[in-house]
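Target protein
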Amino acid sequence: MIITTWNVQWCRGVDGTVDPTRIARTARALADFDVLCLQEVAVGFSSLAGSRGENQMAALSAALPGYLPLFGVATDLDDGRGGRSQFGNAIFTRLPVLQVFRHLLPWPADPIVPSMQRMALEAVVVCDRTPLRVISTHLEYYSALQREAQVEALCRIHAEACRHAQAPRLSGELGEPFEALPRPCSAVLCGDFNFKPEDPEHRRITAATESNVSRFVDGWQAIHGNRPHAPTVGVHEKNWPLYCCDFMFLTDDLAGRIEYVAVDGVTQASDHQPVTMRLVHRAH
């Protein structure tokens, strides 16, 4: 299974051009992905630089035939024209999807900085005949207070899923809302976390917690060891510091299946660089 995560800055390239089709074309050229996790996808936001208020989910979907589009709206506003302006995360996948969860993340008051509502989009996909949770998220940049609360929420969401996996609920009838579908411990948590590898939020996500909760590991570190993370921001925009804030975390049961984790440092279709990971099939 190949997963790519990319903060696409409302499909705006370093050249200032907003072009969802370019995002899809670039992603497809980088990898024959099974799952594409995007952050900063906009619908009806004409106020964003370079945007005409286009429906980027529709444009991306049209450019990615064969992939199921899933949208997780974090910000949902009146566009002043009788419609909605929406901003959030997306998942495009060609794998079967058993169920989808849209988690709004905490947004504690922090009046001294700008901020926005954040969310995590979770899809339970089937890979190698086994269910796997894939989560696309984007944490607050300006507020450490909010970002720390959001990290704690992601850890709680993961612990909840592990408990569901270990103690499945009583199921209703097939096809009704009470039907119990798999929600496994195994997971890939990826996106723009707006912290650095050396920050305490990184240590919190990868810390061992309860004995019955799978531990997250940093995919880059699992395959590259102590080699510094390749930068994912500031590569082509020289007025921005050069560092990594886009990660592929995965539960420790999956770490041995990593074939590679790579950052593409060439594309300028966004102000972030995409990260791609390939998991090999487990032996049967």
